[in-house]
Amino acid sequence: MVNVRILSTSTVRAQSHQPNQPSPKVELTPWDLQFLLVGPIQKGLLFHKPKFSQDNACMIIRRLETSLSRTLDFFAPLAGRLATVELGSGNTSFYINCNNAGAFFVRAVADDVTMADVVEPVFVPDIVHSFFALNGSTNYEGISSPLLAVQVTELVDGFFIGCTISHAVADGTSFWHFFNSWSEICRGFLKPSKPPVLERWFPDGTDYPIGLISKMKPGKFTSPILKERVFHFTRQGIAELKAKANSEIGTNKISSLQALLSHIWRCVVRCQSPDSDQEVSFKLLIGVRPRLKPPLPEGYFGNAVQVGPLTMAAKELQELGHGHAAWKMNKTVAWHTEDKLCNFYKAWIKDPKLPTMNSVTTNALVTSSSPRFDVYGNDFGWGKPVAVRSGSGNKNDGKITVFAGVEEGSVDAEVCLLPETLERLGNDTEFMATVSVPDKLMPK
């Protein structure tokens, strides 16, 4: 069995931090606090090994550490820690103390593991989870643990750069904003092309800091045995799914992503074989930034997502067709207007609800990430990545992680299911007819 060996660990701090100045404080919003009791975001990129790296792996590590330190000058929350204030009556307020306690940096090596070993197997190899630091942690632990951890794992012919970021500090948009900015600075930029906006957004009339019950704990979560597989959908294939869904309903409002996700939902549920009258659900993470008036700034750094659930009977999902499921998904997204978002925000403050991994509903699919995120633009100075993978954080039976594919307009869906369900999905004729076999690992 191949193991990942840890060669060294270090703490990376912002380069220009002024230790004699008071530490900036960033309040957390309901969109941030709702993730306190679940796991961090874990995403990483696979790169070819630079030609100059054969005898200079240490040089690459130094370059990444130095550029990370400079990047943290702009992303101060990621070098900080969560902190609390007792409000009385058993309530506690959480905020980010930008004290430059530092990010965790790990250098590792996976002996005898090649890039092809990572991307070419049918199922995602278990070793991929070992390419990330802080496995098994919860965001709540950010009081004493780093809010950002980076692990650089050297393979025989490549490098994997895995990032773990507290989900109480950043959502997927902000995660990739940081990753993009770090790669820019590593290849010579003096500052990010899109500066982060660190000030949190609160609706007018909101009382904060927001108090939470002090004794809340995440509880112990025992994950079932799960397997993951990445399914590739071409631009043409997605366009055909979109046309089919819109045609069935007689509309043109169903988006490409809604058509794809509803197609995956129907096929997965068919492979799970629930009772016909059993309710099945799909939980969308809906981006809030453009839905507010005025919209949040482009560089807003934090969480700005809300869960949009939709539920149907298993029989209804199958018998009413792809278009019906896609249309229900479209209506769920459209329902999240500014008024609805602000009402949720204020209601949450009065009665906070913090989901845990144990609260994930049976027969529920949950989506994360977005094909809009700039994954393949991350060039640290020796070329763009050839693949993206995620860690073990927040994985459950039914987790669907969507990424942009390497080819423009394509999408990769990383599907996490019980092994027997995933096996059936891979043998489902209707589903696999829409899946494309991507090109082999791109040559260096």
From TrEMBL:
Q: Which residues are in coiled coils? A: none
Would I find Zinc among this entry's keywords? no
MF terms in GO = transferase activity
> What is one Pfam family matched by this protein?
Transferase
Q: Which UniProt keywords apply?
A: Transferase
Its protein name is: HXXXD-type acyl-transferase family protein
Question: To which species is this protein native?
Answer: Erythroxylum novogranatense
Q: What is the lineage of its organism?
A: Eukaryota, Viridiplantae, Streptophyta, Embryophyta, Tracheophyta
